[in-house]
Amino acid sequence: WSYALAIAGAEGKILLIDHLMSNLKHSEQLLSGQNRLQCEFLQIALSDKADNLTFYINKDPNLSGHDSLLNMSEIRYKENTERIKVFTNTLDNEMDSRNISSILFLKIDVEGSELNVLRGCKRRLSEGLIEFIQIEFGHSSRAARVYLHDIYNYVESFNYSIYCIKSHGLLKLDFHPYLENMYSQVNLLLVRSDSEAKLSDYVVNR
After folding, report:
1. Alpha-helix runs per DSSP H in 108-147
2. Which one of 60, 73, 94, 177 has the fewest beta carbons within 10 angstroms of its own beta carbon?
3. What global pTM score does this model have?
4. How much is the pLDDT for 9?
């Protein structure tokens, strides 16, 4: 995602956060030479509190996309994992320590812990200091016992709207109980309400 922004000509500062140094090193190599971007790499896991938690890493690198703070075997993922301890912190805390007040675009991909990361930036959300947020919602959220309506209700309380990212545009979601059955794996864009007009050219009806 950061590389896509770089080659599209984006300028400014990007903070890349991951608990594994190997992932950060890969990102650093990929972004080397992209002089328009100021890149900072932070080895930590984001959540809703500062803590030391167990992280589950797949021994098969082809399944690294399932690495998570959640134990996926509880929802019958058949994987061979090892457990490590990682330090977690909130995004609010990390932004405070770096004197970062606002974020234009926040990308969250944390295999089921998306709501906890959002809870960890509650102050920025309440002050409208994050304009756009992209998250995944899928089967891994079951391990956290999180439903789509939990995320919807949380961000709506801070005046954010939710759009489903479809191949042909953005579909605004108006939550109703049956929506849970419609989306088992989906990419969502959370948009600060006063920024919705910026998306008008991309919104679709279905």
Report:
1. 114-119, 122-126
2. 177
3. 0.91
4. 85
